[in-house]
Amino acid sequence: MAKVINKRRIILALLLFAIVFPFVTQNDYFIHVMTLSFIWMIGVYGLNLLAGYTGYLSLAHAGFFAIGAYSLGLLTVKAQMNFWLAFALSLIITSIIGFLVGLIALRTKEHFFAIYTLCVGYIIYLVIDKWDSLTEGVRGLIGIPAPGNIGPISFESSLSQYYLVLMVLLLVILIVYRIVHSLTGRTYIAIRNSEDLAQTIGISTMKNKLEVFVLSTFFAGLSGALYASFIRFIGPDIGNIVITFDLLTYLLIGGIGTLTGPIVGTFLVVWVSQQLQFLQDYRMLIFGPMLTLLVIFYPRGIAGAVSDWSLKRSEKKKTEMKEGFTQNAITVDNQVKEG
Known about the structure:
The protein is mostly helical. The chain contains 14 helices and two strands; from the N terminus they run H-H-H-H-H-H-E-H-H-H-H-E-H-H-H-H. The protein has two domains: 14-299, ABC transporter involved in vitamin B12 uptake, BtuC (Orthogonal Bundle), CATH 1.10.3470; 309-339. It has helices at 2-25, 28-52, 61-77, 83-105, 110-130, 132-135, 158-180, 183-193, 195-200, 205-231, 241-254, 261-275, 284-297, 301-338, and strands at residues 141-142, 233-234. Strands 1-2 form a two-stranded antiparallel sheet. Helix 2 (28-52) crosses helix 11 (241-254) and helix 4 (83-105) runs antiparallel to helix 10 (205-231). The radius of gyration is 23 Å and the shape is globular.
């Protein structure tokens, strides 16, 4: 019970920090960076749901991120569609493509799955880069509109977009939390632990894997659509494999297979990167060794390490309490015998 209360306090403290952050800093640049962090967190949650809870590492995540971004950009800029309708369609398009890719990709396992999705991601990047008549190629799409008004609420300012992205992130976290703590989440974990054993107890592994793969691509597309509406300009580079490795770095440092890992890893790496912009071309010299040490000593990342430390501390307290109770019982027993 105490653990649940402590977790709730931590969550409320983080939420309060996110809400008051713009008023504390009053710096447009910091608000911009924080909004980008929230957008990346949404994408990392999608990757975590697939890789962390099902055990399938997709290297096409940047490709689906780019599909979400370009779908929104093309529908609003070239088709002149209403923003929110285009936003919804971009998520549907990303999910449909994810479903079609997943039907084939999920027939492979382990490193074969990773290699296949790596190829898919590269193909998506090439299509965006070379199909000039549709995507404008290396010139990119310019003039993507900001989110449309919802009644009297406008999203033209950076502050309003900050809170919009924050609300979407909170909704994503709630959805992932409910999934992980449901029978569906336990099914994903069973597949991760042993797919053959999951099949023997009657779990439809292909159905569940396809379901989580589509959900993962949905979150990637959601992240991409928000990115396009926030930056207002996109180019082929957003589909580059480097973006996938960035998202994977956020996840591994934060803690793969944990609920808080995407938040911790993304926040930490993004803000450290901002402070080390003068070393931007050499940042992997910093994050590379850090990531290697984490994988060796803390495979579950920072969030996993903290969780393990808290568990060990709790077990130690229980052991000490049991030993103290036993000692007291022995002392009382001796006193009774002496009496």
